[in-house]
Specification:
Layout: E1 9-13, H1 15-18, H2 29-44, E2 51-55, H3 58-67, H4 79-101, E3 107-109, E4 117-118, H5 131-138, E5 142-146, E6 148-152, E7 156-160, H6 162-173, E8 177-181, E9 197-198, H7 201-205, H8 219-228, E10 234-237, H9 242-246, E11 253-255
Parallel strand pairs: 1-2, 1-8, 2-5, 3-5, 4-6, 8-10, 9-11
Antiparallel strand pairs: 6-7, 10-11
Helix pairs in contact: 3-4
Bound molecules: Isopentenyl phosphate.
């Protein structure tokens, strides 16, 4: 645990998990508290020593983004629109931080809008410098990033999703394990059953209703494809899987 470059665990808390998606800018307090409890106890007893948290937008970011017609590929040149999205997301981020602090987790915010860019336009790669996050980790903090606006060459500001951030962080920091916690208990097959383990996209493409070639619609198929490409094992699980995941056990669907 003294090795400053020890690989971290990267955990995404889905926006749908920690907010009430039916009410604008409303937390799901019970779900957020339970997630923060699991994080705090895993850190306190050493089950996890280095952790980066990412959270999505849920009922905070998404309605502002869609009101202004902003998405991961459609940008805005309107500073007011950028502020609506960013302010809602920093408000959610503050709520997450507060609840972690209440449990003595040394969480600090890292805001992607101030850090990141799409240098080649909306379809290009995300540039996410990681020196601040890596140094914070080395100093014993738990960086907490979030879906946000992101400067995008030729398009103003687009949205960066929590899922994109998870992939960048996992690759850039050489994550040990990646966890994606949402309201679904895992990747589901066409009968609604959790698929325990996925090691190739072809094996599950039919079950996910996705064509191997094109998947612009995103959703779970795109997520699975990106998580498969990582070196680190990834798990997709629901609230009940968070504690086992943080303890190093399999939870939900293992993607590796
Ligand atoms: O909920 C996007 O993050 P996501 C957040 O992870 C915004 O897709 C700014 C709409």
């Amino acid at each position: 645990t003294d090795d400053a470059s020890a690989p971290p665990v990267v955990l995404k808390l889905g926006g749908s998990l920690i907010t009430d998606k039916n009410r604008p800018e409303t937390l799901d307090d019970a779900a957020l508290a339970a997630a923060c409890d699991a994080v705090a106890s895993a850190l306190a007893d050493g089950a996890v020593d280095r952790l980066v948290v990412v959270h999505g937008g849920g009922s905070f970011g998404h309605h502002h983004a869609s009101e202004h017609g902003v998405s991961t590929t459609a940008g805005t040149a309107d500073a007011g629109a950028v502020m609506d999205i960013h302010s809602a997301m920093t408000e959610l981020n503050r709520a997450v931080l507060n609840r972690l602090h209440e449990r003595d987790v040394p969480a600090v915010p890292v805001h992607p809008l101030s850090l990141s860019a799409r240098l080649e336009g909306p379809d290009g790669d995300l540039d996410l410098p990681l020196s601040s996050t890596a140094t914070l980790l080395g100093e014993g903090f738990v960086p907490v990033l979030h879906g946000d606006g992101v400067a995008t060459a030729g398009a103003g500001v687009t949205v960066v999703s929590g899922d994109e951030l998870v992939v960048e962080l996992a690759v850039g920091l050489g994550a040990r394990r990646v966890g994606v916690c949402s309201t679904v208990p895992g990747v589901l097959d066409s009968d609604g059953e959790v698929i325990p383990s996925i090691d190739s996209f072809e094996a599950v493409a039919d079950a996910l209703g996705a064509s191997d070639a094109t998947d612009v619609s995103g959703g779970m198929a795109a997520k699975v494809r990106e998580l498969l490409a990582l070196d680190a094992p990834a798990h997709v699980f629901g609230a009940a899987g968070l504690e086992p995941f943080l303890r190093g056990e399999d939870a939900g669907t293992r993607i590796d």
